[in-house]
Amino acid sequence: MSFKTIFKRLMAERLAFISFIFLGILVIIALLAPYIVPYEPFKQDLTKVMSPPSTEHWLGTDGLGSDIFSQLLMGSQTAIKAALFAIMIPLFIGVPLGILSGYFGGIIDDIFMRIVDGIIAIPAIILALGITSALGVNLMNAMMAIGIIFTPQFARLARGQTLQVRSEPYVEAAKISGAGSVWIMVRHIIPNISPPIVVQASFNLSIAILIETTLSFLGMGAQQPEVSWGNLIQQGYSMIDMYPWMMVYPGIAILLTILAGNFLGDGLRVALDPKQRKS
Amino acid sequence: MFLKFLLRRLLYVIPMLLITTLIVFSLILLIPGDPVLAMLGDSATHEKVEELRRQLGLDQPVMLQYFHWLNNAIHGDLGRSIFTGQLVDEALMQTLFVTMQLVVVGMIFSIVGGLFFAITSIYFPNSWMDYVARFFGTLGTAIPNFLVAMVLIIFFSLKLNWVPATGFTSIVHEPVSFLQQIILPGFSLSLAGIAVITRHLRSSLMETMDADYVRTAYSKGVSRYQAIFKHSLQNAMLPVVTTIGLLFGTMLGATVVVETIFAIPGMGQLVVNAIGQRDFTIVQGVVLVMIVMVIVINFITDIVYALLDPRIEY
Amino acid sequence: MNTETLLKVNHLKAYIPSSKGEIKPVNDISFSIKKGEIVALVGESGSGKSVSSLSIMGLNAGAIKYRPDSSILFEGQDLLKLKEKELRKIRGNDIAMIFQDPMSSLNPVHPIGRQIAESIVLHKKVSYKEAKKTALDLLNKVGIPDAERRLNDYPHQLSGGMRQRAMIAIALACNPKLLIADEPTTALDVTIQSQILNLLRDLQKEFGISILLITHDLGVVAETADRVLVMYCGQIVEEGTVEEIFENPQHPYTKGLMDSIPSLYGPSKEILDAIPGVVPNPLELPNGCNFVTRCAFATEKCYEVSPVLEKHSSGTRVSCWNPLTKEALSENDRESAVIVT
Ligand code: SF4
After folding, report:
1. Domain assignment present for B222
2. Which single residue of B272, C35, C131, C225 has CA 20 to 30 Å from B70?
3. Does domain A3-35+68-276 have CATH number 1.10.3720.10?
4. Do B217 and B68 share a structural domain?
5. Does the pTM exceed 0.90?
6. Which residues contact C283 (CB under 8 A, 6 or more apart)?
7. What does the domain layout of chain A look like in residue ranges?
8. Residue B6 within a domain
9. What does the alpha-carbon distance between residue A226 and residue C256 come to, in Å, rounded to a whole number?
């Protein structure tokens, strides 16, 4: 399947199409955020504390008079950054390890898989907290922690897929015709195992944002002057009885982003499924 | 035969425990620079630093440190809190029961809600119930639980004033206030669980409803109700049992958030406070206990699965 | 043999409305089954034989709609007009069914005994305990050794042949008047096949049940049935007694099926080898005779006008413009052989 047909099939899924557009816009906003925010996200204006939405402050201001809309835009940058960074670690460490483990097998593979099972048994948030508390509390470390949590999942997936592909006739044929291991892995294994990994990665983008906002909410992620949607909700929470709607906007932002990631994943799964020829 | 099966599964659990405890232990190695200084802060006196170093066994080779630590842990000795000096195992004992109550409630909500939505959605296909179930299944995993918690607090505590927003009473002390106070945290904890079970059980039921043996059941003259409850459901539950087992771990992690928001004095709150205070021995202790619980639950899940599926040979 | 009619299917038309036009899995078939008779319904997959049998059980998927002039009279009662609740009283009680794959057709998480007893409890006013006793008798009757122990066995603990015997025990649980056997031996080994067929015949003799045997294999028919209906593209193309059909298949399709019976001496042939071409797309049926795309005997008329099922000299019914005669058969054998290769 060429990239073009995959893309066409993806866009044929209505929800995936909408999600794709939504996430595209979000990425653009995230890139441009520092230049397009109407106000400095944390610039205080004590004359306009907790003002309702107006033409001046589209989504109103918070307890210190800072513009919520600007904070929201900056928050998108944090979310996208965290998700992309977090997904790189399993893709560049977990997947290669999984491929090697599955391709060569043997005792190393056994030990490796036991370790992977072990890490997967640890609840994600707990492991993230453990890692951030050891490394020190800040956004960078939170992203690292999320990446580390994802790594065994991807290693296991890559290993399983490699085991399947390894026994395919064309790989056997390549081996017989004298192809080296590296050649086979690059030319045959990686292209053939990528579809499920891409699907998993798109789901994990959502999970990464979920964990990032959760950590930030707990005060274990982004620290000022970084803005995370999780922080914004936490601030809203502290004023929950006076101004409960302050957390509505970041809440909706989180919800839509995660939903979009999930729908995109669903769409990719359909689009990349070789069995599902278009009807 | 069953005993042999149990033993075999147990044998699998032991390396798992070794690996995960090693991971927990090695978290300390991640601390950049001198971990003792990092824990105590720069203002600590020299004696205090040396004492903690000895207490943590950090003057020995790493592997030896691990076995030393593990040996102590097995005997219930997890050291003292760096911040308060309280014994870590004591702190854990105080909070463990609280967290367990919360998780059990969350689990019950998840299973009951998941079964309800999945079955009604299958029983009344394309009805509004079906759409509610599907909507819920999609949305439930996309909402972070801190958001759910807050929305619930806003509506049920602040607006309607039905239940208190925060606080906790143990079920053994006052069952009534326990129920009042556990409902919101329990639901916040279980929303994702309900969604996951609904989704998985629904698709599993759809498959089994089309299975040949359900057609056989119909050919015997059973009703749709009997076909679902007597023939489809037990088969459809099999893969879901594993999901429910995995859910336990997720939920245990989520208590961190829920306990913080609802001011429930459980392990989750303990660990969050401990991180804020750089109380690393407590963090290690909590992580350790949670992992052991997850592994035990996985073990139980395996056994339940084997009991439910006659095809599995012990 | 009793000559009373048990089941009478009249102009059964089961259609699936779709955006591209109506699909007609069963397009106007009529036949009847007498008490104590074994009737075989023969055809390839997609010929409409399974939809026909499921229509009798009232178990077709919701997408299938019956034309108002269709009727299925069972002891004079029109099954197509019954409410679901009334149908449930008949299913498993008066009409029972066994399916192709006994492994997937038995519930993997229930013991065999319970699956048999369920039928009984559903239709008779007895306790599960009494029903279990009947179940034990049934297991003995269908020839399962060590029945007492087998009662508590799960399907995966039985062999394929034993599973199908257990299925038959379930079907017989309430002494049905009609047993529909949908490809009952297809999933089984050859030796076990004939055991199961023998069992069906014995049971028919013992209890006087009528059996509707659905199969694609004329070999099975020869061993078991009294009368044969051959279906192609949702219609019956030939009908006759087993002797008549085997002695003189008049429809070219029947002849093709006959040639595909694996002979004891030669290599077995697939239907596809014996009859060239494929079953036409149900949305693009040819004009005239449905079989025209694969027929070696087609004439111009076949392309224009559909033949109707007519009584022929020999007493069989056949829907073909150029029915084969016994004399022509030997001659034509050579001709069709050329086409096959
Ligand atoms: S009617 Fe013509 S095409 Fe049809 S079966 Fe007879 S000979 Fe063949």
Report:
1. yes
2. B272
3. yes
4. no
5. no
6. C18, C20, C21, C23
7. 3-35+68-276
8. no
9. 79
